[in-house]
Amino acid sequence: MPYPVVHWEFWSPDPVKCADFYAKAFDWKINHIQEMDYHMVDTGSDGGINGGIMQPQHGPWPGNMAFYIRVDDLDQIRQRLTDAGGKILVEHQDVPNVGSFCLFEDPDGRVLGCWKQPEGEGEG
User: Fold this and answer.
1) Who's near 38: CB < 8 A, 6+ residues apart?
2) Residue 124 in domain
3) Which of 29, 33, 32 has its CA nearest to residue 45?
4) pLDDT digits over 48-75, tens only?
5) Can you tell me the distance from the alpha carbon of 42 to that of 27, in angstroms, rounded to the nearest whole number?
6) Domain tally, the chain
């Protein structure tokens, strides 16, 4: 299975200001999801990757952005990550009705995520 990058996030102490900047600079469409306090970003491109802007509630996490890699099995990938020399920072977190993810740190200290779609969604 290939492991494509499917989402990115900017972590910001002021997500509204950050979202406003990118909306003005690049004409990105940004939808604030109130119940999650999350700003979903549509970059407007069929070939591009959409993302989000948020203020992390846990941490601190090194850096101020991450990208997410689609996987089929979070348990399996966490084992592969640690076997390869990575460190698991968030073992498993569900996003209701959307999917689930884990966050890891690579050997250089970059924080990235692995994303699992709900069964039967987003495959192909």
Assistant:
1) 32, 52, 53, 54
2) no
3) 29
4) 899 999 998 776 666 788 899 999 999 9
5) 9
6) 1
